[in-house]
Amino acid sequence: MAGRLPLAVRIHARLVRSLVPSLGQEYITQANTAFGDLYGDMTNASIWQRIRLLSRECVAIVVTAFAEYKEQHAAPKSVVGSTPDPRSPTPDSRSTSRRQHPLRAFGDNLRQDFTYAIRSLLRTPGFTAVVIASLALGMSITTTFFSIVNALVLRPPPHVEAPDELMTIRVGSRGGPHSYPDFVDIRNQAEALENAALFSQRDIVLTLPDRPPRRAFAEEVSESYFNVLGVAPVYGRSFIEEEWTTANVTVLGYGFWQREFGGAPEVLGQVILIDGREHTVVGVAPPGLTGVIEPSVPDLWYPVEPGYREMRGRRSYTMIGRMRPGASIEQTQAQLDLIAARLADEYPGMWKDRNGVGQPLTARSIAEDRIVSKTEGHSGEAIAVLAILSTIVLLVLGIACSNVANLLLTRAQRRRTEIAMRLALGASRRRLIAQLLNESLILAGVSGAAALFVVYWITDLVASGRLGIGLPAMVDVTVDWRVALFVAVVATGTGILFGLVPALQASRPDLVSALKGLEGEKRGAFFSVRNILVVVQVAGSLILLVGATLFMRSLQEAGRADLGFDPENVAVISLDLGQRQYTAEAGAQFYTDVVQRMATLPNVESVALAMTIPLGRGRTRWGRLSVEGYERAPNEVIAADGNVVTPGYFDLVRMSLVRGRDFTSGDRDGAVEVVVINEAFVDRYFGDRNPLGKQVDSWEVVGVVRNAKYDQLGESPLPHIWLPHAQNPRLAMGIHVRTGGDVGATLAALVRQVQSMDPGLPIMNPGTMEDLTAAATLPQRIMSVILGVAGLIALGMAMMGIYGVMAFAVSQRTREVGLRIALGAHPVNVVRMIVREGLLLSGTGLVVGLAVSAVITRALSVLLYGVSPMDPGAMFGGASLLLLASVAATLRPALSAARVDPMQSLRN
Amino acid sequence: MSPNPKKHLPLQTHNFQILLSLLKREMHGYSIIKDIGERTGGEMALGTSTLYAAIKRMVKEGLLEKTDRPADNESSDARRLYYRTTDFGRAVAREEALRIRRLDEMLTTTDLLVDATSEETGAR
Hints:
The structure holds 2 protein chains of 2 kinds. In chain A, strands 13, 14, 15, 16, 17, 18 and 19 form a 7-stranded mixed sheet that branches. Chain A is 51% helix and 14% strand. By secondary structure, chain A is of the alpha+beta class. The longest helix of chain A is centred in the middle third of the chain and has 36 residues, at 429-464. By secondary structure, chain B is mainly alpha-helical. Chain B has one domain (10-123): Orthogonal Bundle (Arc Repressor Mutant, subunit A). Chain B is built from 5 helices and 2 strands, in the order αααββαα. A two-stranded antiparallel sheet of chain B has the order 1-2. In chain B, α1 crosses α2 (29-39) and α1 crosses α4. Chain A binds chain B through residues 12, 16, 20, 23-24, 26-35, 37-38, 56-57, 59-61, 63-65, 67-68, 79-83, 85, 87-88, 262-266, and chain B through 2, 7-12, 15, 28-30, 33, 45-58, 61, 63, 78-81, 103.
């Protein structure tokens, strides 16, 4: 039962839940279970049989949704089977009575237009397919982006009762966390609060009965958590205050229950181990219950450990409160100000900073907090990524729309005769516009539906974590009504936008010449709508291409960068012995044993421990250091990132010592405390003085190593320190093994070794150091892929646009071209003329695009490494690619123009 | 809840089929779908949402009821709910069957199906 349900079953579940909610939770669950069984029968069936089953189900769901809807909105009288049966002899009198309705005529018109539009679209399947594909592409990119924003910021947490009454209470101006005792004080003193709760998201080690331990994602919460949210478990119960002292209970997430226990009710009362401590399952939370602020779905919830409830210094929880009816945020804030002052008096060590100023408490609505907590404390990087992504999204949608508008214009021009005929026969212009708009709305609607499916698929892929990209794991990016509404608005908006201009233009033809088929003879002005659209497309695709090239160049540069260490041929795993309640002594012994045993294996060159991996995730900072002989400016704080390592580490990762010595086995507990620093630390705090033998805090400097990259590729050399593990024991360490042979084999040997020593110990992030440090280039890689794909799509659409416009222009000018040839123009000159006109268009687009990219790419500089945002290579590379593409797109129309038979065209 | 079974006639085909399946024994959704599929030679493949929308309505109108899962059933699974036909449901199904029989009798007096029957027999 472990593992995720098949995709088809999940799609089915989502569809039923979102389209037929009136069935009610119980029946929905039953329907899902039944479908799961039916699908389970098909293990040996072909993919087509499965697709058939799923599509049949989808149709059934839609039909049921309509039926349910009709029933809910029908007359109150409803009896099973009373829906008219075709075999029933009872005459159906409803149609006659409805005909008298005044809205009937309007409805008839609409239906007529609708069928007419569909028929005329089906008559040109190629055109329809191209339009739908471009629009669906544009919309699915937009919608995916929106659904991520929706999950992160917009959507209120599901199942939570009256989320408007909830607020977060954070410490300090920068939104810090609370300790449990502080929370109790605040809750007891703030009268505007009806109740309050604490939570903290944690990675835990989970052991289910008869299974190996593994990592899981959980929320550590106060006993009041579910009550404050107003969330009732679907099964069992939530936490009760009386059992709170023992704190050995847990509530499972619905998805987790389904995945791990197959939704079995016997789960209640089972005992599972959370970080090695026994917890009894007492309930199951409703499906899709996420955190209040973070949209990730926890596997389970468990109470704050009793030991932590006394620790005022352990500030690691977020506090939420529910206001009393009638209370306001301002009122609460006023009370919190008083409480903060009281706490500062009582616990100055915790609540006052170095200058004796008390820390404030800040109350915010959770809607606001969801936004603020995502921007605060983040570097410009996150904001840059967001800005770039939204620009890309709008560009692609814009290009898709202009492409489609162009296609529609062309089509409308071709149908001039038909339209003129209808006008001449007395059709009103309004009616014609309505009909043309109808067509574009249908196109947009179908594309929107297609986009929604693509988004289902993409979000599913994202949620499954198979992409392994930046999004925080397990974010619940589901498609809800907000996303559906968004698609509807975008579809209608684009439908009207790209449909209206062509409709207005086409419905105003010069009747006589149109009927004669002559109108196109007029040469279009350069600034015609269609030309402007092409220029926009070319400019937009150039911007995307330049961006993509910039990121690819940046990746190239990053590959060449001097890291200051050598991650090749090093296998790494991370362990946290604290999860298995090792004591400090036992932990030290364990690590010594691992290092000794690994060192004896063949091909292993050296083994060492380090707390963090440079350029990997996570960093540790030592603050408020003092440096011997360095005069601190007032308020200056000396701080440096650092690492805890064992002897031999520097040699293993090839960080070269420039002065002094490496740690040795002599640097142990009780000996002189020592530290190794890097050149940047020396430059910054020692200058020309010899650092060896000097004190940094209580440590004596024994060595200096060359600068390296620690956090980001783009960073300038930062002061860094290393402390010996023997003097600074840690339970969570990474084991590094350098091998002369195959890294994969060494990694496997390392994992086996650790498992043989403690089978219950979870092994985290096994990998090669090369892969782990590659995390540093993750944003560049994601961006170059996204921009590259978007750029290529845009390039394709721009080519289609240019081709369409030129082909159309040529077809409109056969008479002119024929005349030229008849008067002696050489076909080569004709080709040249057409290509020149095409290039004039794309050239204009290129100039506009280059100008705009020059401005926009500046925003990229935060994410670029070793490449200037104005990199001429990227600019001209993108431009020449586009230029080539536009020549290619013009060539065919130009050649067909050169083949015009002068006699034929003049006679027509 | 209507006391008169005839008020529910004519039954929608799939509602009738569901009643027929549940006349035999209590079942859950999956086996109802299977049963109907078998009885109709695969001609009627109910969607799960259609099925449960129908079950929900029929439970509301007293034609079906939920039961505890049968103890004798080995494959019984606590996640699944079982349903059976109520006495009233049985009465409705009976009325529908009678209605269809009357219809059938009516059809034998027309020549509507003469060709079809002869072709069928001819093919055999």
